[in-house]
What does this fold into?
Amino acid sequence: MSWPQSSSWTTSLLAPTPLAMAVTLIIAVVTPLFLHFIIYRSTSTTSLPSFLLLGPSNAGKTSLLTLFERGIPAATHTSQHPLIVEVSLPVPIEAASSKYRSSNDPTSQVHKRVLLIDTPGHGKLRHYALDNLIKPQHLKGIIFVVDAANISPGSSGLKEAAEFLHDVLLTLQKKAITLRTSRTFDEIPVLIAANKLDLFTALPAALVKNVLEKEITNIRLSRSKGLLDSGIAMNDEDSSHDKGWLGDGGEGSFEFSQLEEASVTVTVEGGNVVGDGANITRWWDWVGSIL
It folds into this structure.
């Protein structure tokens, strides 16, 4: 059977000729690759896992951000707006998801890239931090930076850090309980980065954990009394979490381990951003363990 001859390119392409089949094959192969490239390029930045930097003013958050980004800390000033940078895990640190990946796997570098979101620590600007907690974008973890040299028992620095941390943990607890039965729920671990351990007056990480737990106990007790005075009963079935009590209902001593029931894990690790040689290896290790 012979096909009608035509000089029209349209007719030639539509006819079952070797040229038409070759063009069709090229289109079928190239089009998906082209679309994948375009979509990947347009979403690669926004889909990176993110870590939120929180903490009171002068704790060293922005200095830590520049150290993560550049390898050296830079001179900073009090932040007025959130700052977002893309960083990569240093060479010795491996992402947990890359444990069984070949060193030649081209996607291994993608799994080492993260976004760091630095938020202002001033009390009047902490709504930026809470907004990122309530509506997170690919949030994988929280790094709460404290000045370990400024949180001695009874100090204003300890009170400020503990109150901020209390509110952050309470927000995470409420969110976890609300979304626990949802398929979209993802655990958001918290690292308390005890900064400035190079200073003689700094508390070691274990003591930082201890004084924060004790101060949060006082804060929880104070707020529980306020809720009781307003007529909310301590034994109210829904009051423990929904009304503002952190942990096991507001009674007794608070410990970070109480939050594990709400899938909120808290880790305390020490380090220093500036001083006689930066030491943030433990913090990098924690980030890598989550990726």
In short: The beta strands are 50-54, 83-88, 113-118, 139-147, 190-195, 266-270. Residues 18-43 form the longest helix (26 residues).
